[in-house]
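::Encoded backbone::
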Amino acid sequence: MLDDVKYMELALEQARVAARQGEVPVGAVLVDEKGQILAKAGNMPVKQCDPTAHAEILVLRQGAKKVGSYRLTGTTLYVTIEPCSMCAGAMVFARIKRLVYGAQDPKAGACGTLYNIVQDSRLNHHLEVSQGTLADECRSLIQAFFQKRRK
């Protein structure tokens, strides 16, 4: 069994790095079945001028290169905030086994809150989902970012 708190703390570190760079503070870590970290990243759409450069997409790309396949079967993806529909779709196509996320996203969450793409019975792959790991820390980080930005 993987240590969800340990890996979510690493995702939070990535989110903090993203925030320092002016990005929305979302962090992600991709881990294999043995607990080896395959990839970690924070959001980078602003820095990369790329609307798809969400933390989840970046770790899926890095992980796929590392294992030599776009199919990331058996992996667990840790994300500080519930993934959006773009990222959720990519996780389904990548055949991620399990998603662990911190805080829900009531405005764009596509893994159980607003939509549930990763467990949609009409799709050919479904992820196990665990939500709420270090939710308070994840939520506080993103709320503080937007409060500071609005001032």
